[in-house]
Each structure stands twice: as structure tokens, then as C-alpha cells.
Amino acid sequence: MKKTIKLQDLDCANCASKIENAVSKLEGVISCKVNFMGQKMILEAPDDKFNEVLAQAKKTANKIESDLVFLD
User: Fold this and answer.
1) HEC string of 37-57?
2) 17 φ, ψ to 5°?
3) Along the chain (72 residues), what's the average pLDDT of each consecutive run of 10 residues?
4) Cα 63 to Cα 56: distance, rounded to the nearest angstrom
5) Which of 46, 49, 58, 67 matches a 20 to 30 Å C-alpha distance to 30?
6) In angstroms, rounded to a whole number, what is the distance separating the alpha carbons of residues 33 and 60?
7) CA 38 to chain centre
8) Is 63 helix (H, G, I), strand (E, B) or coil?
9) Strand pairing partners for 4?
10) Residue 21 to residue 47: CA distance in whole angstroms
11) pTM of the full structure
């Protein structure tokens, strides 16, 4: 499953890059792209584990950018 999640309060392109790299390394992630200008994350993971992977991605992203809000 591939899903686009809108982001709010992503402060800089450097943080977007850090989030993309960290989330990409999580178990179950097929691909992850974070677009700073578009304020969105495109996450791809297996259908049966997508919600678990998304929850881990959110936790990981919030460690890097604590004010980040996911609008899914």
C-alpha cells in the first residue's frame, strides 16, 4: 500500500531529509519520500502491516521534528 500523508509544521528541508532517511530504515518500509515544499510524506509498506509501519513512522518523525502534525 502506498499512501500520501499531509504534514503540518515541517520546519526545514534538512529535517525532511532526516525524517525520510530514518523512516526508510524502519522494518516493513518499502519506500518513504518526504517533500518539504509540498508538506507531505509518501509512505509505502505491505498492506497487512501498513498501520503498524505508519505508527512507527510517526513516532520516528516526531523524535526529529517534535512539532510535526500528521493530517491523515
Assistant:
1) CCCEEEEECCHHHHHHHHHHH
2) -65, -45
3) 97 97 98 98 98 98 96 83
4) 11
5) 67
6) 14
7) 13
8) helix
9) 42
10) 21
11) 0.94
